[in-house]
Amino acid sequence: MTKLDSVRKAIAEHITGPIIGILSKTPLTPNIITWTGLCITIIAGVLVVREYFIAAGIVVLAAGLFDMLDGALARATGQTTRFGAILDSTLDRLSEAILLITLLAVFVKYGQVAESILSAVALVGSLLVSYIRARMEGLGIECKAGLFTRPERVIILALGLLLSRFDNALLIALAVITFFSWVTVIERMVYAWRQTKS
Length: 198
Known about the structure:
Elements: H1 2-23, H2 30-49, H3 53-77, H4 82-109, H5 113-138, H6 150-162, H7 169-196
C-alpha cells in the first residue's frame, strides 16, 4: 500500500501546490484552515438536512479541499505542531460524523431503513479506519495500509450527493463507502497483526 499512499500524496500536492503558494503569503495559520474546513462541513450538513443535496455535494468537495490544505500549509511554512496534528485528526472525524449523521436524520425522517442502516454502519467503519491507524501510530508503528481512506470517502459521498437526483445514487454511494471502509478496517487489522506478532 506504500505505492497507493505515494499516489495519494502526489495528487494532493498537485491540487494544493498553487493554493499553498498564495496562502503562505497570508497571515492564515494551518489551524485556522482546519477550523474553516469544519465550518464549511457544518454548512454542508445544514444543506443535507434541508435536502439540498446537490449544493451539499459541492460544499463537501470544498471542505475536502480545506482538509488537504491545512497539513500542506503547515509543512510549507514550518508550522507543524503536535497539537495541530491532533486538532486536524479530531475535526476530520467530527466532519465525517456530521455528514453521515445528517444523512441518517434525513433517511430516518422518511423511513428509509436500508439507507439509515448504511449511514450508521458507514460511520462506524470510517471511525474505525482512522482509529486503527491512530492506535498503531500511538504504539510507534507506521500505518500505510488501507485501500479506502478519508479522501476516497469524501469523494464518493460528494458524488452521491451530486447525483442524488438519480434513483438510489445516495444508497449506492453509502454502500460503496460502507463496504470499502470495512475492507480497509480488515486490511489494517491484518497489517497491525503482522507488525506486532514478532
